[in-house]
Amino acid sequence: MYILGINGSANPVHENRYDVGEGNNHDSSAALLHNGEVLAIYEEERLNRIKHTNKWPCLAINACLDVAGITYDQLDYFSFNLTE
């Protein structure tokens, strides 16, 4: 079972246009687990070179999938945090 954990938002960098909770305002990242084992974790800022980016972690997600050699359709679950 593959689980992809995501932290980030659809907001542009350093803006909160969509009024998401404070927990999603910076440090976007993605983590991939397979049968309870962590396969990969990436922070988006390390890949897009924008400090404390809050962008949706596209590059981090793709990097995690590349490490495992899988595609989106092979993911079983997604996990993300929401705050009020």
Description:
The protein has helices at residues 44-48, 58-68, and strands spanning 2-7, 29-34, 37-43, 77-80. By secondary structure, the chain is of the alpha+beta class. It has a single domain (2-80), classed as ATPase, nucleotide binding domain (Nucleotidyltransferase, domain 5), CATH 3.30.420.40. The protein contains 2 helices and 4 strands. It is 19% helix and 27% strand. The mean pLDDT is 83.
Helix content: 10-25%
> Can you identify the CATH class?
Alpha Beta
**Low-confidence blocks of residues:** none
Please give the count of helices. 2
Q: Which structural class is indicated by helix and strand composition?
A: alpha+beta
Radius of gyration: 13 Å
Give the total of beta strands: 4
Domain count: 1
The average pLDDT is 83
**Strand line-up in the sheet with most strands:** 3-2-1-4
Specify the CATH homologous superfamily: ATPase, nucleotide binding domain
Element string (H = helix, E = strand): EEEHHE
How many angstroms does the end-to-end distance come to? 30 Å
- Largest sheet, if any? 4 strands, mixed
Q: Which architecture name does CATH use?
A: 2-Layer Sandwich
Which descriptor suits the 3D outline?
globular
Question: Which topology does CATH recognise?
Answer: Nucleotidyltransferase, domain 5
Note the beta-strand portion: 25-35%
